[in-house]
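Bench log. Compound arrived from synthesis this morning; before running ITC I wanted a structural hypothesis for how uracil sits in the protein. Inputs:
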Amino acid sequence: MDLRPIIAVRRDRGIHSAEDLTQLAVAAATGSAPDYQLAAWLMAAFLNPLTERETADLTLAMANSGQRLDLAPLPKPWVDKHSTGGVGDKTTLVVLPILAACGLSMVKMSGRGLGKTGGTIDKLHAIPGFRTDLSPTELLSQAQKIGLAIAGQSPDLAPADGTLYALRDVTETTGSLPLIVSSILSKKLAAGAETVVLDVKWGRGAFMATREDARALARSLRDVGQRCGLRVEAILSSMDEPLGAAVGNALEVTEALDVLGGSTDGPRERALALATEVAALALVASGKFGTEPEARDAVAHAITSGQAHDRAMAWFAAQGAELPLLLPIAPTRTTLRADQAGWIRDFDAEIVADALLDLGGGRRTKSDAIDPRVGFVRAVSVGDRVAVGDPLVEIHAATEAQIAPAEASLRRAIKLSPEPVSRPPLWDRSF
Ligand code: URA
């Protein structure tokens, strides 16, 4: 397929027809046009952004480039939850089992992490035996049995996005809002969702640096989603400090299970608070509950009754994990302690993310292997008071040699104030 006429339309600031965008998505999905033509179109689309109508057409074209799951065998409502990703963001691992325990059905496609924001698929790969290559049939049959199933990017669902995403990554075109929106929503449509609840993160540890950027992304996802027949709700959440206590793949799985088991120690309290908010929004948006207080009660019951935790274990087992779960453990551990007294003023998520990459716990390039064992467990968050000698954070490393540089990074990340510091708000819903 020769994409030159389509590239020329974009280069000359023209408007694409739906057929242009279908051709483009088919070419990306089937490999019938050369990568250099797709890359040229991506750069033209980066420089001359798609309109909202074109973004919706591209979204539908990418969703239709592979199979579209028909969730008809599953009880309604059909919901998906999506986070734009952040440091220590294990919200998906907490929210999905809660929603399944509350009676929703979810089939979800999720991504791998790159750079400072980790990916849900990488966290799940920390669980020995966990499979993320489920076929569409396996996804449906598992979701019928336990209410949820998850897969990584595959040739079956939205394959055009798989190709375009990989090319965007190596052509400096990831940052285009219409390309981000169509990429996210095409996967939701392909996986059969009707309602999508988004956790759009902003701040030093997120893809979107400012709240204004996050707001623009949330609005565009809502508006384009509507044009494609999706109901989209969103929370904007701050990612200036890591979310919860753990940062690192296996450690975050452990924390998710702790939170589902009712633990609210220290920084875990905020991880649970955000998960509750996202879950309650999903339960109301999908029509399962009429009001948010009712939905929050249902979330609290799913946790206190143990049903959400049980659902997580059933989910892990259904996707291949051996029970009892034996998550990999780092061989070296040390606790960093406060060398002065005061209130925590800052816990810089970006420095923490870099320190995790230094430990081997994330990917700087697509082909990097991840050490699932390493990471950090925070004992404190912004606003906490500490005395000299109090624990600040536990470092989990692969070797002794990694400890000193990690400690130095964390000392830079954590700043104290002699005055009390109030906790910054974690989320808001105005966009
Ligand atoms: N997540 C996606 O799926 N696509 C993007 O482009 C960005 C985040």
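What the model suggests: The CA atoms of residues 114 and 363 lie 5 Å apart. The pocket of uracil is lined by residues 111, 165, 180, 183-184 (CB under 6 Å).
ITC booked for Thursday regardless.
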